[in-house]
Structures are given as structure tokens and as C-alpha cells.
Design a protein that fits this description.
Layout (H helix, E strand, L loop, with lengths): L7 H22 L8 H22 L5 H6 L8 H12 L14 H18 L8 H4 L2 H28 L8 H27 L6 H37 L13 H13 L9 H8 L3 H11 L4 H18 L8 H7 L5 H12 L3 H6 L1
Helix pairs in contact: 1-2, 1-9, 2-4, 4-7, 7-8, 8-9, 9-14, 11-12
Length: 363
């Protein structure tokens, strides 16, 4: 019996598919990543893995029964919607929400029903279709090929609206990168479908999955880290919003503008904005930025940035002491309290406390 020879690129392609399958299961069943909105990313990767397994066998000219059964469903109309749903769930801008997104699933359902009716007759020979239907089968699959080109592009455009408002948020940078990678993969698939529509010939997907392997490794080593970090920050914010702020305002000072600044700090948490600037705060207080610096120097011992970072560290220390936040990373707490990078967080925390965040937590 001669051993089966599998080309190197096909091995890489199969490994990419299996990685995609494992990642989807990790997201869907791991307690660290499972959540209502993360599940949609897990569904997307799972569906893409199913598509990849189908294509891998078809490219090899093999057609196991399980692959034929999976082919009853037109998965290419499902994963663009689950991905779009994921970006919608991660969007915090209600004005960008897409109304009626659930209706997009109908295209997958309706076309899969028609495809199943045809396939159960032509492939599984369970029954015979009327001649009037048989004459339109080719037109049906030609329409499927055309929609496979149009539909992913439509969902890419819709999802772009959802990730656009993250452009000024450093912690959401990974979402934009995720959108770019997925869009490239989907457009690569669109090009294959366009060729199939124009020439009625299906190209092998080996090179597509070879490229996809690069994306999957990025998702593991970088995306998951940001993925967990973003989730932690969201949950920290949710818990913190439920708490009544019991910090006392400094009423010893006679400067009303400084008291208003303290209210903005303690009640509005303006210092949790990583892009907060002196000019922005002065505008809220309706005073000049120079006068703002003056009243801070009169009532504290430092500059505007020292004052803001002091309150950021103060909030971080309170969260570290709270046992409800023990399961969240220190970096996610630091970023949620207003620092825009790991370096800035650790440097300013040690400047205020003389300890690193880890040392402070252990102490």
C-alpha cells in the first residue's frame, strides 16, 4: 500500500484550518474569553474552519460523506454576518448600530434550504426533482456565485462604520487590525468567487489558507492579549459604574474653579480619559489653560499632569484593594483608569507609591 502524498502547502493549509477550529473552541468555551459579544467571533472562526475543511477536501478531489453533508449549508453567507454582529457588539457608539442586523441571517437560511433540496436529489439521490426545477439549477448556482461576491463586500462596508469610531482609542487598535485582516481574507475569497462566476471554474484555496495562517498566528500572539485586555476593561467599567462615588470633595479651598475641577475628577472621572489635555479641562471649566495651571499649583504641589496622574493612581490603588477586581490584570486596571500605555502606567504608579503595581498588590 503506497503512502498518501500531500504537498507541503496543503499541509500548511490543513494546519491553518485546524488552528482556526481550535481558536474558535477556545473563545466559545474558555472562561477567560467567553462572553455574549466574544461568542460571535468564536462562531465566525468556527464557520470559517468548516469552510476551510470543506475546501481542503474539495481541492484534493476527495468527497467524504461528512463533507457532502456540510456542503448542504452555504456557510459563505453566514460568517460575514456573525463577524458583523461581533463588531456591532463591541461597538460602544449607539449611533453606529446597524438596525435589523438579524435579518441578514435570512439569506443564509433561505439559500441553504434551496441548496439542500437540490443536493439531496443530485448528490444523495434521495428523490427526483421535477424537470422544471432541474432546468434552473445552473442559474441558481450562478446566482449563488454572484451573491458570494457581493454579500461579503456589503458586510465589510457595514462593519467599517462600526470600527471607524475606535480610531482615537489606543486600546481598540487591535479591533481595527482585526477588521483589516478579516477584510483582506474575505476579499481574497471574493476574488476566487469572482473568477468562478466569470469562468465557471473553481480555483484551489491553498494559497488563501497559507495567508490565513499568518493572520491566525497574529490572532493568537497579539489579538488574544488585547482581546482579554479589552474585555477586562469593559467589565471593570461596568462594575465601577454601579458604585456610588463616595470620595469627599476638598471644601477647604476657596477657589470655586478648583472645587469644580475636583467634582469633574471625582464625579465625572474625566481623568480616566487617556486623551485628556489641559486645554480640554480648561474649556470645561470655562477658564484659560494658563489660569488652570495656576490654580493647580496654588492648591497642590505639582503640575497639571502630576495632578491628573495622582488621581489615576489613587483610583488604581482603590481597585487593587477591592477583591472584586482580583481576577483582572493590573494593566487592564491601569488603562481603564486613564493611562494610555503599560510604560506610562508603571512609571507613574511607581513615582506615586515607590512600588510597582505588582509589588503594591502583593503588599
Amino acid at each position: 500500500m503506497q503512502p498518501i502524498q500531500i504537498p507541503f502547502l496543503e499541509i500548511i493549509s490543513l494546519l491553518s484550518v485546524l488552528h482556526c477550529l481550535v481558536l474558535s473552541l477556545v473563545i466559545l468555551f474558555s472562561k477567560f474569553f467567553r462572553s455574549k459579544h466574544n461568542n460571535y467571533l468564536g462562531y465566525t472562526l468556527l464557520i470559517i474552519a468548516i469552510v476551510g475543511i470543506n475546501n481542503w477536501f474539495w481541492d484534493r478531489g476527495s468527497n467524504p460523506t461528512i463533507i457532502s453533508l456540510l456542503d448542504l449549508f452555504l456557510w459563505q453567507f453566514l460568517y460575514p454576518v456573525t463577524l458583523l454582529h461581533f463588531f456591532q457588539k463591541t461597538s460602544e457608539d449607539e449611533t453606529k448600530k446597524i438596525v435589523g442586523i438579524k435579518y441578514l441571517y435570512l439569506l443564509f437560511i433561505v439559500l441553504s434550504v434551496f441548496n439542500s433540496v437540490i443536493s439531496l436529489s443530485t448528490i444523495f439521490n434521495l428523490y427526483s426533482l421535477p424537470q422544471t426545477i432541474c432546468t434552473h439549477v445552473d442559474q441558481f448556482y450562478k446566482a449563488i456565485s454572484f451573491l458570494s461576491v457581493i454579500f461579503p463586500i456589503y458586510t465589510i462596508i457595514l462593519s467599517y462604520r462600526l470600527v471607524l469610531h475606535h480610531k482615537d482609542n489606543p486600546s481598540k487598535k487591535w479591533l481595527r487590525q482585526l477588521w483589516i485582516y478579516f477584510s483582506i481574507l474575505m476579499l481574497f475569497g471574493v476574488a476566487f468567487e469572482l473568477y468562478r462566476f466569470l469562468y465557471s471554474e473553481k480555483l484551489p484555496f491553498t494559497y488563501l489558507w497559507t495567508f490565513a495562517s499568518i493572520f491566525l498566528y497574529w490572532l493568537v500572539y497579539k489579538g488574544f492579549y488585547q482581546f482579554k485586555l479589552s474585555n477586562d476593561r469593559y467589565e471593570i467599567r461596568t462594575i465601577a459604574k454601579k458604585e456610588k462615588n463616595q470620595l469627599a470633595t476638598n471644601t477647604n479651598t476657596k477657589n470655586t474653579h478648583f472645587n469644580k475641577l475636583l467634582l469633574l475628577i471625582e464625579k465625572e472621572k474625566i481623568h480616566h480619559d487617556p486623551n485628556l489635555s489641559r486645554d480640554n479641562v480648561a474649556e470645561q471649566l470655562e477658564i484659560s489653560s494658563g489660569y488652570l495651571s495656576q490654580i493647580i499649583k496654588e492648591n497642590t504641589t505639582g503640575s497639571f499632569s502630576d495632578f491628573i496622574n495622582y488621581h489615576r493612581v489613587k483610583d488604581i490603588k482603590a481597585l487593587i484593594k477591592d477583591p472584586r477586581f482580583d481576577n483582572y490584570s493590573l494593566l487592564s486596571i491601569g488603562l481603564e483608569c486613564g493611562f494610555n500605555s503599560k510604560t506610562s502606567f508603571y512609571t507613574n504608579f511607581k513615582k506615586e507609591t515607590g512600588l510597582t503595581p505588582n509589588q503594591y498588590k502583593n503588599k
